Amino acid sequence: MLAPWSVCADSVMWLRAALCSLALALVLAACGDDPAPTPELVATPSQDFPSTFEKYGRLAEENPAGRESMVEEAVEALSVDIKRDPNNADLYVKRGVAYALKHYHSGGGGSDESLLEKPIEDFAKAIDLDPANVDAYIGRGETYDRWNQTDQANQDYDMALQLLNRAIGLDSKDVDAYVDRASVYRIKEEYENAIRDYNVALELDPDNPDIHYARARSYSLKGEYGKAIEDYDKAILLDPDHVHAYNNRAGMYRVIGELDKALQDYDKVMSLSPNFRWA
Question: How many Cα atoms sit within 13 Å of 93 on the Cβ side?
């Protein structure tokens, strides 16, 4: 169901090598042949490490060369913090995601089930400490998904949905719960349900660029490219530096044949994030 670093599948699917090369050539012609400098690595506080595969993927797109070191740093820092605070469920969730990504790529994909042990142990520990931890169920589900264990993945997704349904039942204005439930529906490829929840979230928080961005992705995966572009437009209007919205909107323009607009967006991506991963 899921591909490695699948957070921008719409962008990856439609970004052809020819268009990418053309955009890059234009930038190099303007700026010279010197490659962009590698960003200096700075130690990251463990609380700032992502708790979801999607957020790691977005960071990796912005700095693909630092992907492996980022994951290694996360595992090391989180392991230190877990020793200091062994009853913190969120730390186990974050390390579980980092372990899953580290082992998935070091194992050459989802073929070696022995690599599941560490991330699954961390997610299970998080659930033991906090049985209502939605991120733990989603993270474990996505980990099983990456190793093609669909039945176990769906069990965790269903449990996450139950918890989110309960949260929304207790507070019908819980924006985060709607967004999280929409994310689970999108992972399960239930795009109509995902869009419905994003609609509610935007009624409650209409000026949130990330919710517009997320709904755009569901529209694009559903094949509704015009609506996807409208949401990317809104995300960019609300956050003019939203590099992922520019990149994905470029992909939409490419697929509908508006190549000039696509190249303009790719140029903007390069200006905002010179090291951005194109595919």
Answer: 27
Task: Decide if 227 contacts 246 (C-beta within 8 A).
Answer: no
CA distances from 3 to 74, 187, 190 (A): 22, 11, 17
Q: Which of the listed CATH numbers 1.10.1660.10, 3.40.1190.10, 1.25.40.10, 1.10.1240.10 matches domain 1-31+171-279?
A: 1.25.40.10
- Tell how far CA 43 is from the center of its chain: 22
CATH number, span 42-163: 1.25.40.10
Question: pLDDT (tens digit, 9 = 90+) per residue, 28-81?
Answer: 444 444 444 444 434 445 567 777 777 766 766 666 655 677 788 888 999 999
Type of residue found at 45: P
Tokens of 173: 């204005």
| Residue 235, token pair as written in the block | 């995300």
Tell me which residue of 191, 174, 94 sits closest to 139, measured CA to CA. Answer: 94
For residue range 151-207, list pLDDT tens digits in order: 999 999 999 999 999 999 999 999 999 999 999 999 999 999 999 999 999 999 999
Q: Which two tokens stand for residue 166?
A: 């309960």
Phi, then psi, of 40 in degrees rounded to 5: -70, 135
Pair 195, 218: CB distance under 8 Å: yes
Q: Break the chain into its structural domains and give their ranges.
A: 1-31+171-279, 42-163
Alpha-carbon gap, residue 139 to 51, rounded angstroms: 8
- For the four alpha carbons of 236, 241, 245 and 248, in that order, the dihedral sign comes to positive
Nearest-10 Cα torsion for 56, 60, 62, 64: 170
Per the confidence metrics, is the pTM higher than 0.85?
A: no
